[in-house]
Automatic annotation (TrEMBL), chain B:
Ranges that cross the membrane: 28-59, 92-113, 125-146, 166-188, 224-247, 267-292
Membrane-topology annotation of the record: Multi-pass membrane protein
InterPro entries, alphabetized: ABC_transporter_permease (IPR051393), MetI-like (IPR000515), MetI-like_sf (IPR035906)
SUPFAM superfamilies (UniProt xref): MetI-like
Main localization (coarse): membrane
Domain ABC transmembrane type-1 residue range list: 88-293
Gene Ontology cellular component list: plasma membrane
Signal sequence coordinates: none
Protein's UniProt name: Sugar ABC transporter permease
GO biological process per UniProt: transmembrane transport
Lineage of the organism: Bacteria, Bacillati, Actinomycetota, Actinomycetes, Pseudonocardiales
Region (Disordered): 1-20
C-alpha cells in the first residue's frame, strides 16, 4: 500500500521530461553568461555565440588586468564579511537575552522589532540616506555597513533557536561559577553553530547581492561593489563579454558558498521561511 | 565585564516582591546590555528613519536646505502626477502577472520533486540556484537573452525590452526565474506534513490524481500559499534592481515602477519630500493588499 502513491512508468517518464526541461531553462542563463564571457567582443549573435569553442579569454584579461573589478571585489568582500561577523555577534547576543533573560522593556523592544518588519525598506530609505550623508558616510565602508547591521530577521532567528535550548545547561554553568560572557562564549555560541551557519550564509548572500544601498552610498567609482559596478558597466555600454566576465566573477563566490552550504540554506528556508 | 548573577533576593514572608527591585538584578542589566547594541542600531537606522520618512512626506525638502512644512501638498501633487499613476499602473500590472505565474511555477515543481527519487535532490538544488543569484547578474544576462541578438529576441524577431507591450512580461519572466525556487522550498516543507494516509485513503476511494490534489493536498497547502502570496506581493511591489539595470523604466516609461519613481525623485532630482510621499504610498498599498489577502484567506477557510 505504501507504494500506491508512486507514479507508474508513464508518469515517471513524464515527470522526468518536465523536470529536465525546467532544469535546462533554469541553467541556461548561467551557461549563456559563462560562454558569452569567453567570446570575442563582436560575437554576440545567437545561436553562433553559444557554441563554447573556441574560447577567447581577452575579456578576463581586461577585467582582471587593471580595471576596477579587483577593487570592486575587495569592496564587496569587505561589505559582506564584516557585516556577517557583526550581524552574527549582535544578533546572537540579543537573541540570547530575548530568549533567556528577564529585563525591563523586553516585550516592548521585541514587539517593536516585529512591527518594523511590516514597514517597507523604501519608506526608511530617504531619511536613512540623509542621515548617512550628513554624518559623512557617503563613500565610506562604515556608511555602507553600519545601517545594515540592524537586522530584525537575524535577531528573530537567533531568539527562536536559543529559546529551544534547555535552561539547565546555563543553570549548571552558572552554579559552577561561570561568568555570563563565559556562558555565552563557551555554551551558547557552540550550541548555535548550525543556526549561525545558516544565518551567516544568508547574510553573506544578502550583502554580496545587495544593490540599492551600495548604489546610493558608493558614489565614487572606487567605492562600488560588484553589483553596482557591473550595472554601471552595462549602462556605459562596455562590451557584453566584459560585463559578463565581471558577472561571472561575481557569481563564483556565490556558487562556491552554495556548494559548501546548500544544506544550511535550504534548511533555513524550510524551517523559518527566511527570505532568500 | 564579568558579572555573576547571585540568587534573586527572597521576598520577606507576607510581603509581595517589589517589582523595581527585580530590575536592578545583574541579570536584568546583563540582558539589557546584550540587547542594547542591536536596539540602538535599530532605533537609529530603522525606527527613526521610518518615522522621519512618514513625516518628511508632509515637507518640501531638498538635501542641504531646511525642510519646509507643506501639509498635504506632496500628496495632492502625487494625485495630479501622470508619472505616479503610470508607476502605480506598471507596478500593479507587474504584480498581477508575476504573482500567479510564480506561485504556479513553484507549486508545479514542488509537486514534481515531492517524493524522493534518484536525482530529486539534484533537481531541487538546481531550482534553488537562481534564488541566491543577484538580480543584477540575472539582469545582465537576461538583457542579452531578450535582445534582438539573443535567443528570446530571435523568437519574436525583435527586442523585448524595446517594446512597450513586451517589456513587463520580460521583467516578469526574469522575476519568476529568480524566485520560483524559494516558493518551491516553502511549499515542499509544507508538503512533507501532508499525512500520507489521507492521500492513500483518497486513492482507495477511487480519487484520481487531480481530485487527490484538489481535495486532499491543496487544503493542507493553504497556509504556505498564503505566506508565499504575502511575501511575493511585497517583493513585486518593490521591484527595482531588474528594472534599473534592464530598462531604466523605459521604453517611454512603460516599465517605470513605484520604487523606480521613488529613486528618481529622491536621488536624481533630490526632491526628498515628494520621494517620501511616494514611499508612504508604497507602504499604504502594501498594507492595503496585505489586508485584502487576510480577508480573502479568512473567508476561504
Amino acid at each position: 500500500m505504501t507504494n500506491a502513491l508512486r507514479p507508474r512508468l508513464g508518469g515517471k517518464i513524464l515527470r522526468g521530461v518536465f523536470l529536465a526541461v525546467a532544469s535546462v531553462i533554469t541553467i541556461f542563463p548561467f551557461y549563456a553568461m559563462i560562454v558569452l564571457s569567453l567570446k570575442p567582443v563582436a560575437a554576440v549573435e545567437f545561436p553562433r555565440s553559444l557554441v563554447p569553442w573556441p574560447i577567447d579569454t581577452s575579456s578576463y584579461d581586461r577585467v582582471l588586468g587593471g580595471g576596477d573589478i579587483p577593487l570592486w571585489t575587495l569592496n564587496t568582500l569587505i561589505y559582506s564579511v564584516v557585516s556577517v561577523v557583526l550581524v552574527l555577534l549582535l544578533s546572537s547576543l540579543a537573541g540570547y537575552a530575548f530568549a533567556k533573560k528577564r529585563f525591563p522593556g523586553k516585550e516592548t523592544m521585541f514587539w517593536s522589532f516585529l512591527a518594523m518588519v511590516m514597514v517597507p525598506y523604501h519608506v526608511t530609505l530617504i531619511p536613512l540616506f540623509v542621515l548617512i550623508a550628513e554624518a559623512g558616510g557617503v563613500d565610506t565602508y562604515w556608511g555602507l555597513i553600519v545601517p545594515t547591521l540592524a537586522n530584525a530577521q537575524a535577531v528573530f532567528l537567533m531568539r527562536q533557536f536559543i529559546g529551544t535550548l534547555p535552561d539547565e545547561l546555563f543553570e549548571a554553568a552558572k552554579i559552577d561559577g561561570a561568568s555570563e560572557w563565559r556562558i555565552f562564549a563557551t555554551i551558547v555560541l557552540p550550541l548555535c553553530k548550525p543556526i549561525l551557519a545558516t544565518l551567516g550564509l544568508f547574510v553573506f548572500l544578502w550583502h554580496w547581492n545587495d544593490f540599492l544601498w551600495p548604489l546610493l552610498v558608493g558614489k565614487s567609482t572606487d567605492m562600488r561593489t560588484l553589483t553596482v559596478g557591473i550595472a554601471a558597466l552595462q549602462e556605459e555600454n562596455v562590451p557584453l563579454n566584459v560585463v559578463l566576465a565581471g558577472a561571472t566573477i561575481a557569481f563564483v563566490p556565490i556558487f562556491a558558498a552554495y556548494l559548501v552550504g546548500q544544506r544550511y540554506l535550504t534548511e533555513g528556508v524550510t524551517m523559518s521561511g527566511i527570505k532568500g | 565585564m564579568t558579572v555573576t548573577a547571585p540568587a534573586p533576593p527572597r521576598p520577606r514572608s507576607g510581603q509581595p516582591p517589589r517589582p523595581r527591585k527585580r530590575y536592578l538584578r545583574p541579570e536584568a542589566l546583563l540582558g539589557l546590555g546584550f540587547v542594547l547594541p542591536v536596539f540602538l542600531l535599530f532605533l537609529v537606522f530603522r525606527f527613526g528613519p521610518a518615522i522621519v520618512g512618514v513625516l518628511l512626506s508632509f515637507f518640501e525638502y531638498t538635501l542641504g536646505d531646511s525642510p519646509r512644512f507643506t501639509g498635504f501638498d506632496n500628496f495632492v501633487r502625487m494625485f495630479d502626477d501622470p508619472l505616479f499613476w503610470q508607476a502605480l499602473k506598471v507596478t500593479v500590472i507587474f504584480t498581477v502577472l508575476y504573482l500567479p505565474l510564480s506561485i504556479a511555477t513553484s507549486l508545479g515543481l514542488a509537486l514534481l520533486v515531492r517524493r524522493s527519487f534518484r536525482g530529486s535532490k539534484l533537481f531541487r538544488s538546481v531550482f534553488f540556484l537562481p534564488v541566491i543569484t543577484s538580480l543584477v547578474l540575472a539582469a545582465t544576462i537576461f538583457t542579452w537573452l531578450f535582445s534582438s541578438s539573443g535567443p528570446l529576441g530571435k523568437l519574436i524577431g525583435d527586442s523585448w525590452l524595446a517594446s512597450t507591450t513586451l517589456v513587463i512580461p520580460a521583467l516578469v519572466i526574469v522575476s519568476v526565474w529568480s524566485r520560483f525556487g524559494y516558493g518551491m522550498l516553502i511549499i515542499l516543507a509544507r508538503l512533507q506534513d501532508v499525512p500520507r494516509e489521507l492521500e492513500e485513503a483518497a486513492l482507495v476511494d477511487g480519487a484520481g490524481p487531480w481530485a487527490r490534489f484538489r481535495h486532499v493536498v491543496l487544503p493542507q497547502l493553504r497556509p504556505a500559499l498564503f505566506f508565499l502570496a504575502v511575501i511575493e506581493t511585497t517583493t513585486s511591489f518593490q521591484v527595482f534592481d531588474l528594472v534599473y539595470v534592464m530598462t531604466g523604466g523605459g521604453p517611454a516609461r512603460s516599465s517605470y515602477t513605484l520604487v523606480m519613481a521613488l529613486y528618481d525623485q529622491g536621488f536624481q532630482y533630490f526632491d526628498l519630500g515628494y520621494a517620501s510621499a511616494l514611499g508612504v504610498a508604497l507602504f499604504v498599498l502594501t498594507l492595503f493588499v496585505a489586508l485584502i489577502q487576510r480577508v480573502l484567506m479568512g473567508r476561504s477557510k
